[in-house]
Amino acid sequence: MSPDPLDPTTAFSELGRINLGETDLEGILQQVATLAKRAVPGAYEVSVTLVRQARPRTVASTGDPARWIDKWQYENGRGPCLEAAAEHKTLCIGDVSAERRWPGWHEHAGSVGVRSALSVGLPIQENVVGALNIYATTIRAFDEDSVVLTETFAGYAAVALANAHLYDTTVTLAQQMQVAMESRAVIEQAKGIIMSQRRCTPDEAFDILAKASQDANRKLRDVATALVERTRRP
């Protein structure tokens, strides 16, 4: 059963209310695809393509036909979603059966009942690009207004994706900093133990730790943690 159509303004408001802290990137993209399917007239299925380090994949979709069409493009290295993503442009295919720019694509898309398609590039950041792909079961399903609406919607989606990427990067950096601080704390504890046992300086204690790490072929933090844990045991 298809979801009820959604007024574009309402769809944009829904997109703006996505809480980056309560869902992951794929969750955000799934909401983008679902809202696009309801907001763009004539949409049959919708997918979102992300290309990271030259590796494309469908990270969200509203149904198997969209994933099927996208998969063919990735395996064959050609198709509207890849071209839209790579060149940051809009591609509207009014009649799939008459399209010959990507040999074989029209037959594959037609096999699942798709008769027209619309792909809008999503520039997210330097090494990550994407495309919002909308498929329809009728010829020339997307008029000029639909294209403008999809491009506007894609603009909102690109902002959400960029924010999600920034959020993800910030969280990762914070986690890395936390790990670094914890590593430094346990290394300092281990140095203190060695200084007490060996009556040596901080630099000498660190050298002892470093040599133990090298001899055991283990990370310095792991060696320090093991020493602290042994010292804490009764």
Describe this entry's structure for a reader.
- With 234 residues, the protein is α+β, with helices and mostly antiparallel strands.
- The protein is 57% helix and 16% strand.
- It has a five-stranded antiparallel sheet, with helices on both faces.
- Strand 4 and strand 5 form a beta hairpin.
- The mean pLDDT is 85.
What fraction of residues sit in β-strands?
15-25%
Share in helix: 55-70%
Roughly how many Å apart are the termini?
65 Å
Dominant shape: elongated
Q: What is the CATH class name of the largest domain?
A: Alpha Beta
Q: What is the N-to-C order of secondary-structure elements (H for helix, E for strand)?
A: HHEEHHEHEEHHH
* Biggest sheet descriptor: 5 strands, antiparallel
Number of strands: 5
Number of domain units: 2
Radius of gyration: 26 Å
Task: Give the structural class.
Answer: alpha+beta
Mean pLDDT: 85
The strand line-up of the biggest sheet is 2-1-5-4-3
Unreliable residue runs: none
CATH architecture of the largest domain: 2-Layer Sandwich
Could you tell me the CATH topology label of the largest domain.
Beta-Lactamase
Topology of this structure?
Blueprint: H1 8-16, H2 25-39, E1 45-52, E2 55-61, H3 64-76, H4 80-87, E3 90-93, H5 105-110, E4 116-125, E5 128-136, H6 144-198, H7 202-216, H8 220-232
Antiparallel strand pairs: 1-2, 1-5, 3-4, 4-5
